Hints:
This protein is an alpha/beta fold.
Amino acid sequence: MPKLLTSLTLTVLLALLGSYAVWTEMRPASRYLSDLRSEVAVNLGEPGERGNLLGIQPELYASDYQSPAQLRLKLAAYLAKAHSAGLLNAKTVVVLPEHIGTWLVASGEKDRIYQAQTVSEAMTWMGLSNPLRLGLAWFAAKGEDRLADALLRMKAKRMAKDYQDLFGGLAKEFGVTLVAGSIVLPEPAVQNGVLRVGKGALYNVSLVFGADGAPLGQPQRKVFPIRDEQSFTAAAPVSALHVVDTPAGRLGVLICADSWYPAGYAELSRQGAQLLAVPAFLTGNGNWSKPWGGYNGAPTPADVQLQPGDLSEGEAWQRLALAGRLPASGAQAGITVFMRGQLWDMGSDGQSLVATAQQHQMAGDGPGARLINLWL
């Protein structure tokens, strides 16, 4: 009898393990319809031969990341709208928001992940769906937030390929230079025209693609990660900032919080930057009008005397970031582009803006995506 019970127990356990193994490999093919609405919210200046900066402030949801093809459908619809509005030409520089590539980590997963109520729940289900890959990545993780590090690391190669295929493909299809927001990858580098990942620390990086779909220069690493990023991403030195040549001029990229620091502008000015692009992401619904919380775990620049709460978040972005620092930067024009929508429980806020040395203009709120254009 004891042998029979032992045999039955082992059989049940093996059946359960087998069922779990089968479940982890199942990836439903269902797709959710996505809202493709967009409108031109800002169109500053007059069309000319110098080109333009065009920001796409998308409205994204977890379901948009079911696959790169799903995300491409939405972004291509926005670019098609820009084309029909006469905003695309051979000298157009399109800018997308921070972390638009990071959430490719959720691509190809189970429906349960896109239906999760919180980021934490989605991450848990992602780990349960990829136990072996997560286990291997866990031992290689280097950040304090081991789960976030491991999940990003285990999908890094696929994410890098999807990122280049998606955004390089859009740049080529629409014949524009494209600042592909940002993505978190381990020690990323372009080798022989291909975005590769390494085994070192994770970095939040932005890559620019030319109108032929090929990368321009190396991935631009974020210099000043905020508190929420510091537990799994590393900071790059200011000296790592660089400019790339585009048909519209020499372009520098400052990822989100990097646009709050004079050191970044000084370095890009030294390299002759004429245009500045700021991919940005502000979590939390309604935070734009709430009191500014300070530098969010990053150091306060020496030239800033204001204290948290002295301004609203929106006022701080206008006075202390690109719009306020552009006149002293030597650059002719710049653009800050936020992501909007609802990724699980994160929320989002921010009003994208274009700026010159003389003025800046923000996009208003409303449903759908916003196209923000500045003629140079």
